Structure formats: C-alpha cells, structure tokens
C-alpha cells in the first residue's frame, strides 16, 4: 500500500478502487504534480457554499475520497474530517474557517474551498467568493431554501460566480426533490437545468438517473460508493425522465440560436452539443445545473464532480480581472496568462502555529516565485516572498513557483492584509478590495495577570490580522478591552482560541449589543477652540452642518468653504476631529452612523491656527450639531427563522411577540412550520436554550443581521441612562 500512496495523495486516480488500473500512470502522475504542468483550461477554482448543516463538509469529504486525495472518508461526528481541522470545529461539528484543498478528477485540477455555513462566519464565504470562479451550492432537500442559503446565493450573485446546485440528503425523511426545485425557482428567479433526478426517496433512495444520457446509476457495488453500475431507465421512471429531459433541452436551446434551430426542426441534438450549450449558459449565469444525491450515504457525488468539470469555468473562461493603475488612475485589465505582469489578491490571512503568518493569494496573472519581491499597491510597500505553499487544509506542500489562475499560500508577508493587491512594481495595479459587515455584538475581556496582558495583546494582534470582522478597542474609564464581532458564537470561538492557542488567561463579561447613534433632522453648529498661553496660542474655528444620510452610509465628510475662510490645509484636520468624535458618539457613547457632515464656514488666525486647533474645533462642532439634530439610538435587527412542530406554533409566536419581534409570516417545510420574523438582537440573547424549552427540544432557529432600526423611545431612555451612569 505504501508503494501506491503517491497516487492517492495527488489524486490522479479517481478512487482507491482504481489502484491496479493506475500502476502505469505512477511516473507520469508524480512528474505532473511535481512540475504542476496543468494548463489553465484544466483548472477549476470552486467553493462549496450552503446553509449550516446542509452537508458541505460531508460532500467535500466524499469529493476528496472519490478523487483519491484521501484514502479514508472523514466523518463530522467522529471529528476526523480533513477540512474541519481546528479543535473548535471538531468539537462543535461545524465549519468555522474556510479550508483550501486540491484534487484531480478526469485530468482536471480542482482547487476547492469548503466554507462555513454559520452566519457568524459569513466573512469567510465573502472572501472566498471574491476570488473563486465557480461554486457548488448545497441544499438540504427536505428543508429547501433556508435563510443562509439565500445569503450565500446573493453573495455569489454579487461577484458573478457561476454555480451548480446539489440537492443533498435525498435519503432523509421528508426529502422533497420537486418542492426544493420549486423553492429555488421562486426565491431566485433562475432557470434550472436538472441533470440528475432521484431514483426513490427517503429510505427508498437508491440511485440517480442521468437526464441527458438517459442512464440509471446505482451505487450497489460497495458501501464506500467508490464504484457504481449503469442500468437502463426503469419503466416507472421513464415518463418523469422524459418530462425533465424535454424541459432541460428547451432551457439549453433558449440561449443558443443554432441549437434552437435544430430543436424547432425536430432534430435529435447530440448530447455533446447540448453539454457545450449548457456550459456556456452556466458560465454566463443564465442556467443553474441541478444534481441530487446523498453525500452521507455515498450516492450521487461522482455525477456532481462530472458537472464541475463539464460546466463550471476555468480561470480562462471568466472575464479578465479589472483594477486601477495607482500611478495613472486609469482602469487596466489582467488576463489569466503567465506572460502578463504579476497580479494577485490577498484574500485571507491565517496564523499557523508552525510557520507563523500564512497569506492566501489568488493569482490573476503572471508568475509568483519563491524569494522574489512584489509591490503591495494598496499601501505602496515592497514585500519579499519567503516561501510558497500549496495548502491541503492545514497541511502544506512547498513549491517554487505559482502560476496564473492558482490559489496558493505565502510565508513572509509582513505589511500586507486581507484585501490588498500584490503586483509587479513595474506594472502596478490595484484591485477592488473586499468589504465586510460591521460587528453587531461586543464582549468585555480582561487578562487575569500582567503576564497575560502581553500575551493577550499579541493574540489580539494576530487574530485581527486573520479576521477582518473582528474589532478591538479599549475602554479608558474601566480599563477593559472591548471585543466586537458578528455574533455570540464568533466571540466565543475567538476567546477560546486566545486561551488555547496563545495561553491567555481571561475574564469575560456578558455580550453587549453594538448600538449606533444617528440623527433625524438637519442642524448646524459652531466649533471654536481658542487658547492663549504665554507664547504662541491655539486658534481653530469652523461651522458644520449635519444632514441625515442614507441607511448604511456611515459618516461622510465634505467641504463647501468659499473663498479663504479656512485654508485648504486645515480641512483634513477638521475631518479628523469629526471622525474621532463620531466614533465616540454623542448621546450614549456609541458610534455615529448615516450622517453627512459639511463644513461651510469658519475663520483662522495667521499665527495661532494649527492642525490640532482645527481638529478640536471640528470635534466640538460635530457634538453640538448632533445634539440639535434630534439624535436617536439604533439597534441591530436580526432576520429570524424559527423551525417548530405545528403544535408549538402559538406558544413560540407569543414568546416572539414579547421580544418585540415583527412576525413576517410562516410556511410549511416538510413536517415543520417555519416562522419568519424580524427581532432586535438585544431580545434574543440565549434564544437557543429558550426555543428548546418551549418546544420540548424539537425546535431550532437561525438568525442573521438584517439592518439597524431606531430603538423605541422608552427603551432608548433606559439605555442612555444606563450608559451615562456607567453601569455594566
């Protein structure tokens, strides 16, 4: 078995069962992997995205096994999956960080990223989709389209990522293939290309039928599902298959004039022509290929892999990467070609206990070499490439060069962070960075001793490099460090990592909601800072106007100074004072948002005016203007989806109403009722325990941030009173 290990590791064989047939490929396989002589047309950069518990990691494990990348299938319950390698992931049975792996299927190299499904770690999905060319969207066929399913689908739309759909868990009680297809059509308005249909369902699910090829595949040879047999379509499936095939051909022909002409003439279109037409329509985002199966029961994954090869794009199939030349300000393009100037986007930073800081790059053009130097066009600093690595989850393989279209990790980058562009200094380009949502919940942390203080600072610095959704600030009054994140689980994981990985002993407070402040009307105010001491004094004077801004617009600043009322060189100082004051808030110490600030008048002193004086004047003016503009508190509102048995509906809705929830409606999904609601984050702390108590342990819920809304006046007074008194 040791003799054959290279074959399994590098994925040249399609499954361990093919060992004998691959003996003569060994020398070639090792050489191909060593030199990585794979043309860009034979590369697929894809991600697996879905709602939590839809089966992403299980599907990834099957892909790795059937491609020969692993010799044993991992199991989430056993805690031995490849991509869920962190202790926190294995203990909780969920994916927390995205993991990159590489496998081969039918001569195609698949760079695969398994992403988290929990909303607290949605940033991992965001940055993965930013650099991927295609995606597999996994649905639980009994649940259909769930809340996070919609979120990640729209994230994929945002970056124009073509995708396949895998309707998983066909063996599950309540599995509804047709119902799931209908939900996808209704929610996303996309035309579907159904390529496999299930043979049986629930406990009777035993295989899938290929719609175009008109064959039945049965996984009846061994329990691992590595081999399957082909059979004619049974009589009881022929009518159903004919219906799906007719619809599939019509949908493909709709987007291809040549095929449509053959179809209207009644000709039998060759399967290969239909596949070519479907590939073009999929890459263009017009059709969504649909597959079905059960990853846990090892059925239906190989046709899905065929779909990745046949329908998802290679780096050469997607539009060239567009960016701005920082020297000229003009838009430029980079094509996926090794001969073009180097360009790459840093999309993820990870702290590795063995090698230190790992920076993940998607290379869009050119060649990256170990020991070379690159320009970080985002901060105009030069970086040296220490080592280049191909990643297999948390395992590493050293390489000397990385080529256009590849996803690799780099050791040695010191000044680069998530979203930065690395490029050839002679041909600079800057790609659009990655935007992340703001935190919605905070937690106070304190080190147990002075020795832990230094450890904590080091741990936080590394974690902040890794996680762009994490925020840290110090409370000067209490001396506490305030950690802000995307949810209670997010903060729990961060604290757990600080304790385990960095050995920090901590005390933690209760999670606190991240409120915001804004204004309801327009107002103006004067800011004047005059200090006269023995020598040179300080003089800063400005007038500001504050205007309610659009939702999620943050704080914008502009100048409408006429003439020379304030010299132009002092305007940035006023803006700095405004932004610092906005960060501290006015009525309860929470950051100001959705406000337009305009400086329109003021005065200066030829001798005494300074940057510091105008900064303080800007801060004073903002605070005074906000106080006059009817300031209010905003609170994060969560989109809540509660799944409960029918008999507990009334009880759960009554409880939600007492939590200031707005009930949007309910629907049936399998044997459960789904309640959709909007509810303030402050009112669902610890809701997991509450919903289990209300439903005898049979209910569950999912919540994700939706928007900020004004806090009711009576509650607002309580919060402001609490904050101004300095209570915990």
Describe the protein.
By secondary structure, the chain is of the alpha+beta class. It has six domains: 1-35, no CATH class; 42-314, P-loop containing nucleotide triphosphate hydrolases (Rossmann fold), CATH 3.40.50.300; 322-431, Translation factors (Elongation Factor Tu (Ef-tu), domain 3), CATH 2.40.30.10; 445-513, Alpha-Beta Plaits (2-Layer Sandwich), CATH 3.30.70; 517-629, Ribosomal Protein S5, domain 2, CATH 3.30.230; 633-724, Alpha-Beta Plaits (2-Layer Sandwich). It has 18 helices and 38 strands. Strand 8 (207-210) and strand 9 (215-218) form a beta hairpin. The radius of gyration is 29 Å and the shape is globular. 46% of the residues are buried.
Q: Would you count the extended β strands for me?
A: 38
Helical percentage:
25-40%
How would you name the oligomeric state of the polypeptide chains in this document? single chain
Structural class: alpha+beta
Q: How many structurally independent domains?
A: 6
Class of the largest domain, according to the CATH hierarchy? Alpha Beta
Percentage beta strand: 25-35%
Largest sheet: 8 strands, antiparallel
Q: What is the CA-based Rg, rounded?
A: 29 Å
Placed side by side, the strands forming the largest sheet appear as 18-17-23-14-15-22-19-20
Calculate the mean pLDDT score and round it: 85
CATH architecture field of the largest domain: 3-Layer(aba) Sandwich
From the spread of the alpha carbons, the general shape counts as globular
Could you say what the CATH topology of the largest domain is called?
Answer: Rossmann fold
